[in-house]
Amino acid sequence: MSAITVYTKPTCPYCLAAKALLRSKGVAFNEISIEGDAAKTREMIERSGRRTVPQIYIGDTHVGGFDDLHALDAQGGLDTLLAATV
User: Which CATH class is domain 4-80?
Assistant: First the structure.
């Protein structure tokens, strides 16, 4: 199992963008689709405190959604976090 977890929905454009960004970094991730899965949706909300997808975790760090992931990458922090985790 990967140290990176992404909660998603199949038709979410932000989910697709987050997964593309992670793939461009060459890292594997565990995708958890919450589409139609009440238990996984509750798990995501309890874990993140948020109801929107994607919700991204790198190791024990809750990055947040795509905007947060993109901002972290733009600031140069994503590569550092990934290197420490994977």
Answer: alpha beta
